[in-house]
Amino acid sequence: MIHTGQSLVIIAVMAVGTMVLRFLPFVLFSRNTPKWVLYLGKVLPYSIIAMLVVYCLKDIHPGKAYYGIPELIAVLFVVLLHKWKHNTLLSILGGTVCYMVLVQAVFV
Amino acid sequence: MNKITVKHAFITSLPVMAGYIVLGMGFGLLLNAKGYSFWWAILMSVTIYGGSMQYVGVNLLAEGASVLSTALMTLMVNARHLFYGISMIENYRDMGWRKGYAIFGLTDETYSLVCGNPKLPEGVDRRNFNFLLTLMNQSYWILGGFLGALLGNVFPFSTKGVDFSMTALFVIIFVEQWEKSRQHLPAVLGLVVSLICRLLFGADRFLIPAMIGISCGLFLFQKKLDGEEQKS
Fold this sequence. Notes:
- The structure holds 2 protein chains of 2 kinds.
- Chain A is an all-alpha fold.
- Chain A has helices at 4-29, 35-56, 69-85, 88-106.
- In chain A, helix 3 packs antiparallel against helix 4.
- The longest helix of chain A has 26 residues, at 4-29.
- Helices cover 75% and strands 0% of the residues of chain B.
- Chain B has helices spanning 3-33, 38-47, 51-63, 67-78, 81-88, 99-104, 108-116, 126-151, 164-180, 185-201, 207-220, 222-231.
- The two termini of chain B are 33 Å apart.
- The interface between A and B is large, with 66 and 95 residues.
């Protein structure tokens, strides 16, 4: 373990860096919001959620076993379960259990 | 704060509760393995409050990273938060005293829950809802980190794959957004550009190019998308 002081500095830098990124758009654009920011604000959520899905699955290697097959099965399962019941908690629970079974018992 | 708002915020936060506690515990566990007590886990979860950042942070601490490389790493890992702010400027505009904290705590999951609930039920105050949702989510995260660092792995079974709960949450919100909107171009654009960038730039470097690509794409189709928006 490194010195307490050095640990605190590293944590502080991470905290401040994260805060800067979160606050910057509001600081820059809250007053007299430019039209292009309003436009992006309206359409971005759809693109970002898609980006986050890819971000969650980023560690799949196209050339390495199991080629993301368990992930794709589980994602498909979540989509179908959600289309069927429209119950967020059920879909999350079902999808997670499905994925855990796949990576622990099927694709080992 | 009225009861309906508190109740609705709590129900909305439930999907994140399990995920944050388990992922938070994973973080606490890793941090503890590097010799840091639960106080450090609490400190990090209170001040940084970012899932992937804190996981990376464990390694930065372990190797005693320099200020510069820590700062650069933070900017790389969390650059996507710039996007969240841009799309919450309108939603968070009149939040008053709650605004600072709501912005501070705008994580991937809180952001997606706010996005996933554009229409709130009758009697729910949006400003208090956003604030409480952020606060509840952070409490789960802090609790998870604390428990992980204090107790270690308490589950009698393997938790491998449990982090899929967050993926599932984003997939569900994707499905709901898809069903609710008539214009699917932004969603498809986000998916395609992110996938291409992931393949081109690799798992650790694709987010920033993807953000640039998505913005360019959205501006390219601005006339079409803005027109549709006004018609609906």
